Amino acid sequence: MTIEPGPEVPIKPVIGFRRPRFKETGLMGVLVALGLFLSIFGGSLPVTNRDTGEVVKVNKFFRADNLDKLAKNTSFFAIMAVGATFVIITGGIDLSVGAVYCLAAVCGAMFLNRFGPHGAGSGAPAFLVVPGAILVCLGVGGLCGFINGLGVVGLRVHSFVITLGTMAIYRGIAFVMTKAQAFTDFPPQFTDGFVRREINWHGASLYPVPLAIMIGVTGFAWWYLKHSVTGRHIFAVGGNEQASLFSGLPVNWVKVKVYTFSGLAAGIAAMIMLGYYGSASSDAGKGYELDVIAAAVVGGASLAGGRGTALGALLGALIIQVINNGIIILNIDQNYSQIIIGAVIVLAVLLDRINNSLRERRMTRAARPGKVS
Amino acid sequence: MAGACHAIMGENGAGKSTLGKIVAGIHRPDEGSLMVEGVLRRFNSPLDAQRAGIAIVHQELSFCPNLSVAENLCLSHLPRRAGRLDWRQLHERARFYLDQVGANCDVREELGGLSTGQTQMVQIAAALATRARIFVLDEPTSSLSAGETKRLEELISRLRQNGATILYVSHRMDEIFRLCDVVTVMRDGQQVATLPLAQTNEAELVKLMIGRSWQKMFPEHIDRPLGPERLRVEKFSSPGKFHDVNFSIHSGEVLGVAGLVGSGRSEVALGIFGLDRRVSGRIFVDGNEARPRSPRAAMKLGLGLVSEDRKGQGLVLGMECGENITLSSLDRLSRGGVIRRGGERGVIVRFFEKLRVKAASPHVPAQTLSGGNQQKLVLAKWLARESRVLILDEPTRGVDVGAKGEIHRLIGELAAAGHAILMISSELPEVLNLSTRVIVMRQGQLVATLDRCEATAERVLKWMAGCGGETTSGAGQPAGHALG
To answer: pLDDT for A16-74, tens place per residue?
Structure first.
C-alpha cells in the first residue's frame, strides 16, 4: 500500500492589502457635532440684505460670513500646525513658530512698506512686488527653520531648548529691526488684489484666498507624508530614531527638513496675515507657539513621536477655532474661553489615547498566529 | 550552608542569571519551592527577598546614578532630623558600610561617575546595609580590573568568614576553583550536575556545560567553493573596546564569532557599520579600502547589520511590517522622491513569502509580531536593500524554537546564494553548525581563528574562557577527549 501524497498546500501568507481605516474619523465627528450644536443652539440674528433692503433672520453660526471668518482665523493656525506636526512626528518640538511668524511678517511688512503707495519704491509693477513679498516671507521663515534644524542636529541639544532660544532670538531681531513700530501702507496689489481678494456671494462678502492656501498646504503635506520617501523617513525617525540610524536613514537631514518646513509654514502664515490685515509689528504672533502645538496635539500628533497627520492638524486647529467662535455666539463670558480650550486639549488627548489603546488591542488580537492560516 | 560559596556555571543563556534573579525575587518562579534557612518562602518582589536576607549584585544597576554614593546606600531609610535630611549622619553611615567592604571612594561622589568595579563594591556595601546573609553575585568580575578582582575575592572570603552564603555565577574557571566549594552546572535551563569542586576539574565542567546532545549539521553552503573576498578588516581597533582585530569574509561564507558577552564582539560589528567614531585600522569592502563613517555610508557599501537589540535598533515597532521591510531601500523604490506604491508592494509581498513572515497583514504594526517574525523583518530589510555583506549579531536571541530553525535555514540559503555573513552568537551549537570558519574573541582581542573541522565545542569554549592556549600547545588535543 502506498501513501498518496496529499495535495501540495501552497504557502499562503495572508497578504490583504486592506488600507488601514481613516484616522481622522473621530476628529471629523467632533467637528460635525460642534457645528450642529452651534447651528441649533446658537440662535439667529436679523440681517439686512444690501440689495433688496429686506430683513431676514440668519443662523448666527451657519452663515457664510461667519464661516468665512472662521476659515480665515483657522488658516494661520492650521498652516503652522501642519508644519509643527512634521516636527512633532519626528519626536521634536518647535517653540519658535510664533517668533518665526513674527520675524517673517516684519520682514515682509518692511518690504511691502517700501513698495507701498508712500514708500521709496512705490509704483513698482505688481508682478514683481507680489512674488517678492511672498519670497521674503517664505524665505525668512524657511531660513529660520533651517537654522533651528541645524541647531538641533549640530549641537545635539534637545529641540525644546534650541527653539526656546531661537524663539527669543528671532523675536529680538524683529524688535531691533522695527524699533517696535508697526508697518502699514502696503501696495494694494498684495492686499486687496491677492490675499484679501473679495468675492460676493448671495450678498455676503467672502475672502477665499486664506482658505485656499490652507487647503493647498494641508493637501500637499498630507500627500508628502504619505507618498514621499522623506515622509516615510519622518515617521521612522519619530518612531525609533536609533533603529532609523541603524537602517541607514539620513536621520540628521530628515530633522533639518522638518524644522525648515515648520519655519516655512510659519512664513506662509505670516504672508496671509500681512495681506489680510495690511500691517505687522514685532508683537505679531505672541504666544502662537502654544496654540499651534495645541492644534497639532488635538489633531492626534503624539509628542512622543511617530504619529500625526496633516489633516489632523487642520482639524485640530479648526476645532479650537470653532470652540472660540462658539463662545462668542453663545454669549459666554470671554474670560471662560481659555478654561474651555484648555479642557478640550486635555480631553482630546485623553480620547485619542483611549481610542489608540483599543485599536492596539484589536491589532494584537488580529495578529495572533493562531488566526493566521 | 552558612559560610559556603556555591558556583553556578553554564553557557550564555543556560539560565544562570535567571536562577539568580528568581532567588533574589526579581523574577517569579513558575513552579517549585524556595527554602531560606529552612523556611519555605515565596517572594513577590525584590523587597521580599531583601527582608529574607537575600541580596543580588549584578551588572544592571538598580541604583540612581544621579545621586551620591551615600544617598544610594541609605536610600531605603534616609536619616532625618527635624524633618530634614541629616547629611552628617548619612555620610557617616555610608562610610561605615563602605569601610566594611574595603571600598575607597568618596561618599559624596555621584554614583554615575564611579567605575564598574567601584559601583559593584557599593552594591555589595548596600547589600550589607540591608543585613543580607545570602549574596547572589551575577558575573561580578566580568568587567573588573585585576586589582579590583583581587579586592572582590578578599571581600568574598571575609563575607564567608562572617557566615554569609554566596551564590556565585560566573564563566571563569580559575575564579570558581579559587573561591567556591560546590558547583552547579546548568544547560538549557536545566540543572545538569552539582558536585564539590574538590572532586572535579576544568575539563569535566566544560564537558558538562556543552553536553553531548547536539550533532553537527551540514548546511548546504558548507560544501560550496568560496567566492571572492567581500569584507576584510586589518588592525581594527577601538580604544577600550577591541584591539588589533583582523579577519576577512568571502562570498558564500559564514564567519562565526564566538566569545563571552563583553568580549568586544558586538563592538566590532558596530565599528564596521560606522557607529564608532574612534575606530582605527583598515576596512576593505570588495577589495577597496573604505571607512564608513555612518550606517548610511556602510549601507551604501553593501553592508547590512542585524543588531542584537532588535526592538531598539532593528525595527520601528509602531510602523507597519511592510514599511519596516522597505525602510532601507526606499530610495530604490521611488522616483523623484515619491514612493512607487506598486514597486514597494511587490518587494513586501516577495519577502513576506520568501521568509514566511507570519502576520495578519503587512499593514499591522511590527510590534504585534512575535520575536522570530520581527527578526525576519529585520533580515528582510537588508535583503530588500540587496546587501551583500550581512553582519548578524545574535540572530536567534529571543526567538522561539521553530523560528530559530527557519532563521538557521535562511542563513544557510543566503550563504549558498553568495552572501558573506558575519555571525556573532552566544550559542555555541549555532556557531559550530553554521560557520565555515569560527573566530573567537576574548577581552577585546581576537584570540583564535579556527576552521570548521578544527572548531570543536571544547576548543572554542576554552578559547572563550581564556585557557585555550594550554590545550593546543600542551596535550595537542582537547582535554575533554581524554575523559570522554
So the answer is: 444 555 667 778 888 898 889 888 888 777 777 667 777 777 788 888 888 888 998 89
* From B341, B348, B360, residue closest to A371, measured CB to CB: B360
Task: Look up the ipTM and state it.
Answer: 0.82
Q: How far is CA A368 from the centre of its chain?
A: 38
Nearest-neighbour CA in chain B from A214: distance (Å): 23
Interface touch A363/B307, C-beta < 8 Å: no
Helix, strand, or coil (residue B41):
strand
Q: Which residues of B touch A239 (CB under 8 A)?
A: 316-319
Cα distance from N-terminal residue to C-terminal residue, chain B: 33
Instruction: Tell me the whole-structure pTM to 2 decimals.
Output: 0.80
Q: What pLDDT, on the 0 to 100 scale, is given for residue B143?
A: 63
Per-chain mean pLDDT for chain A: 86
Reported in sequence order, the residue ranges of B139-250 that DSSP labels E, i.e. its strands, are 165-169, 182-187, 190-196, 229-238, 242-250
Give domain limits for chain A: 60-354
Q: Does domain B5-210 have CATH number 3.90.1310.10?
A: no
Instruction: Of A262-271, B101-110, B284-293, B391-400, give the range with the top mean pLDDT.
Output: A262-271
- Is residue A187 packed enough to be buried (19+ CB in 10 Å), middle (13-18) or exposed (0-12)? buried
Q: Which residue of B has its CA nearest to A10?
A: B353
| pLDDT, tens only, A125-157 | 888 888 999 999 999 999 999 999 999 999 989
Cβ-defined contact of A245 to B368 (cutoff 8 Å): no
Whether B361 and A243 lie within 8 Å, measured CB to CB: no
Give the one of B295, B300, B316 whose C-beta lies nearest to A240's C-beta: B316
Rounded distance between C-alpha atoms, residue B168 and residue B170, angstroms: 6
To the nearest whole angstrom, how far is the Cα of B365 from the nearest Cα of chain A? 8
Quick check: B115 and B65 in contact, CB under 8 A?
A: no
Model confidence band, residue A259 (pLDDT cutoffs 50, 70, 90): very high
Taking the CA of residue A130 and the nearest CA in chain B, the distance in Å comes to: 30
pLDDT in tens, B57-87: 876 556 777 888 888 887 777 777 777 888 8
The per-residue pLDDT for A368 is 53
Shortest Cα distance, chain B CAs vs residue A230, angstroms: 7
pLDDT of residue B60: 59
Kindly determine whether residue A245 and residue B295, on different chains, have CB atoms separated by under 8 Å.
Answer: yes
**Nearest CB to A20; choose among B334, B363, B381:** B363
- The residue with greater pLDDT, B145 or B44, is B44
pLDDT digits (tens, 9 = 90+) for B220-230: 777 778 889 99
Residue extents of the structural domains in chain B: 5-210, 220-302+388-483, 317-385
User: Under CATH, what is the fold of the domain B220-302+388-483?
Assistant: Rossmann fold (3.40.50)
Give B34-65 pLDDT, tens digit per residue: 888 778 888 888 778 888 888 888 765 567 77
CATH number of A60-354: 1.10.3470
Q: How far, in Å, are A82, A257, A311, B73, B166 from residue A144 at the CA level?
A: 17, 12, 25, 49, 62
- What are phi and psi for residue B445, nearest 5 degrees? -125, 150
Say how far apart CA A305 and CA A326 lie, in whole Å.
Answer: 32
